[in-house]
Every structure is written in structure tokens, then in C-alpha cells.
Amino acid sequence: MTSPRQRSTPQHSINAPSPSNFEFVDAGRTFSCDAAPRRPTESEYWWWFRVSTDDRNRYAPFIAAPDDTPASVQARVVAYYDDLLARRAAPSVPRWQRKSPA
């Protein structure tokens, strides 16, 4: 007989995409992806990822969809992260500038 502990499922398993976690390598970087709620009280899943070259941050750039595949998530994650790196490398734009007299 199976114990109740073995039969239990995660609280949010109904909305989780399949597969809900995987890894891939792109441009020498290892990406670890996981679908999980942003907060324990939420039922909506987001794609979270970590990058081997950025060990201090974890990102959740978009909501997980039931029809997501590892290939579709990989393409979106790489595009998001490459854009993030480009924005970080760009020169900063002053938030306030005095208008020059006409």
C-alpha cells in the first residue's frame, strides 16, 4: 500500500507546464530553467532561470504557458538574457537633462 506522503502532489501541479525544469548550454553558458510561482500564494507559473556566468541573480522574465517546449523556452530565455547584457553594456542615459535654450 502506498503511503499518503508518496501519493501527494505539489500544491500547484495542475498549472505547471511540462517539463517544468531543464538545463541547456548556449554560447558557453549553462542556463537552468524552472517553472514555479513567483510567490508561494500564487497559482500562476513563471519561467525562472539562472545562468552559470551570473551566479548572484535569478530571473523570471515571462509567464509559463501550457504549450511551452524546452526549445521555445530556450529561445525566449536566450533572447531575454542577451538583450539584458546589451542593455547593461550600453552607456547610461541621464534621467534628467536641462533643456538647451532655443
Written overview of the protein:
- With 102 residues, the chain is an alpha+beta fold.
- It has a domain at 11-81.
- The chain is 24% helix and 31% strand.
- It has 2 helices and 4 strands; from the N terminus they run αββββα.
- It has helices at residues 4-7, 70-89, and strands at 21-26, 29-37, 45-51, 54-63.
- The protein has a 4-stranded antiparallel β-sheet, with helices on one face.
- Strand 2 (29-37) and strand 3 (45-51) form a beta hairpin.
- The longest helix is centred in the last third of the chain and has 20 residues, at 70-89.
- 11% of the residues are buried.
Keywords:
alpha+beta, single chain, 24% helix, 102 residues, disordered N terminus, four-stranded antiparallel β-sheet, 2 helices
Number of strands: 4
Low-confidence stretches: 1-14
Strand order, sheet with most strands = 1-2-3-4
- Which percent range fits the helix content? 10-25%
Overall outline:
elongated
Termini Cα gap: 84 Å
Order of helices and strands: HEEEEH
Q: Mean pLDDT, as a whole number?
A: 82
Backbone structural class: alpha+beta
**Proportion of residues in extended strands:** 25-35%
Q: What Rg do the Cα atoms give?
A: 19 Å
Q: Total number of helical segments?
A: 2
Reported for the largest beta sheet, the result is: 4 strands, antiparallel
